[in-house]
Each structure stands twice: as C-alpha cells, then as structure tokens.
C-alpha cells in the first residue's frame, strides 16, 4: 500500500517536489505544460499507452496519472541492465516515435531548450530518455515519464540520448565509477539497442554522430548550470572529474568510432 502524499524518488531538478497521491502524481509544471498535456492526450489517441495522462494544471503545478511499474534508480538493479531490458527500451522508443510522428507540432510553443536536438525536427522527442525516466512492467520497458524536456527533434536524438545512459556510452575509466555498469560491453550493447529499435541501415551509420551531438549539448547544459552557481551542482561536477571527464569521454568515442560502427552495421 502506497501512503498518501508519498514523495517520489529520482530526478534532479524536481527532487523532493514530486508527490504521489494514490493514482495521481502532483509535480511542478513547466511553462510549456499546457502543450505537453495536449501532446500526452494525443499520444493516447494514437495508441501509445505508456505515458502519463493529464489530470489538472494550475498554480504552477500539474497533476498526471501515475504510470505503474518499476523504475530503476541508482545503483541500478541487475534486471535493468540486461540485454533483454535494453532491447525493450529500443522497442519502446520505436512505439513512442510512431505515435509522436503522427501528432502535428504546435506552433509558438516555448519548448524546453536544455537538452533539445540542435537540428530541431518535425516531431516531438522526449529528449531525456535516461534510465530513471523509463517504466518497466514484467521486465520489459513499458512507459516514459517526465516530459519536461520534450522538444522538436529527430527520432535518432532520443535513441542517442538513451544510448548514453543505457548502453552506456562512457569511457572505461568513467564507467568503472558506477557498479551498475560493471561488466557491460558498450560496443555490443549499442547494437542491441539499435536492433531493438529496428533501426534502418542509414540511421545506424548516423547514430554515432548524433551521440557526439548529444554530448556537445550536454556539455553546454552543464556549463549553463555551473554559471548559475548552485553550490551542490558545482560540487557534484568537480567530484566527478570536471571537464577532464568529458574530454576523456569524447576522445574515447573518437578512438572507438570504427569499432562501434562495425558493430552497428555488420
């Protein structure tokens, strides 16, 4: 039995501010929340049932239905890092994109920019398909939550974002800091994610370039956060190696590019 008013774990920006009341989740609302609510309604109409449904909006907060299931939080449980779980994340993204591509983009909406695809696009991407934003049922990825960063983009943007954290696309030194990633082969797992999505040959050749773009956008987002001067954010950044960690990651990806590409396309 879940207690009334249970504060939900996970997240950074909204940490401690997301509360579940039975089957309703009450959380801070973004400026573009009305458009997101219309989009979520349209997703359900187009057959994607794995997203929250809007219930209410006002006074700077929104109410959405609770998507029941399992969400992996750090340290990630073993079940969330299996090959089968990874393949199902790819399949989930494919289903989401099929529904989203059928929904016309609303003009004039102040979509989030923090992790948005710099090329834009004709469909709305989730833009934050990290481990903590995927809901599982019976060991398979079922739903997506937290659409705060949704923005127009290319389907590959969501897949590349997912690859960063699900594969994960991390250099060995950085990955070794996370026990949840111990023993995972990122080269093989990137192929599993692409196969689960049903990725075309053309998209497979482009995926690594989009991963590179994701990292550039993430770096810019972190730089903006550092400029904001939040003490906890600054401390966490330096505790994790600062920009040297990001430089090492990008150098490793460049060095391993041929190996990743071969695994994706052969």
UniProtKB/TrEMBL annotation:
Pfam families given in the database record: APH
Aminoglycoside phosphotransferase domain mapped to chain residues: 119-183
Protein name: Aminoglycoside phosphotransferase domain-containing protein
Organism placement in taxonomy: Bacteria, Bacillati, Actinomycetota, Actinomycetes, Catenulisporales
């Amino acid at each position: 039995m879940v207690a009334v008013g249970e504060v939900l774990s996970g997240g950074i920006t909204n940490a401690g501010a997301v509360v579940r009341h039975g089957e309703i989740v009450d959380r801070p609302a973004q400026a573009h929340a009305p458009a997101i609510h219309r989009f979520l309604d349209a997703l359900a109409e187009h057959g994607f049932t794995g997203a929250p449904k809007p219930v209410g909006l006002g006074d700077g907060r929104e109410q959405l239905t609770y998507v029941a299931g399992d969400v992996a939080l750090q340290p990630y449980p073993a079940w969330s890092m299996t090959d089968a779980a990874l393949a199902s994340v790819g399949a989930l993204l494919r289903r989401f994109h099929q529904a989203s591509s059928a929904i016309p983009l609303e003009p004039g909406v102040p979509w989030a920019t923090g992790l948005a695809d710099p090329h834009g696009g004709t469909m709305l991407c989730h833009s934050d398909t990290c481990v903590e934003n995927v809901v599982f049922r019976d060991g398979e990825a079922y739903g997506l939550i937290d659409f705060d960063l949704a923005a127009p983009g290319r389907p590959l943007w969501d897949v590349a974002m997912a690859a960063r954290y699900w594969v994960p696309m991390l250099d060995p030194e950085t990955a070794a800091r996370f026990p949840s990633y111990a023993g995972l082969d990122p080269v093989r797992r990137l192929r599993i994610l692409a196969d689960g999505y049903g990725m075309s040959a053309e998209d497979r050749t482009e995926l690594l370039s989009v991963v590179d773009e994701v990292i550039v956008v993430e770096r810019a987002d972190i730089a903006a956060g550092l400029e904001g001067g939040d003490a906890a954010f600054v401390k966490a950044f330096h505790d994790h190696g600062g920009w040297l960690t990001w430089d090492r990651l990008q150098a490793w990806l460049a060095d391993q590019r041929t190996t990743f590409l071969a695994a994706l396309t052969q």
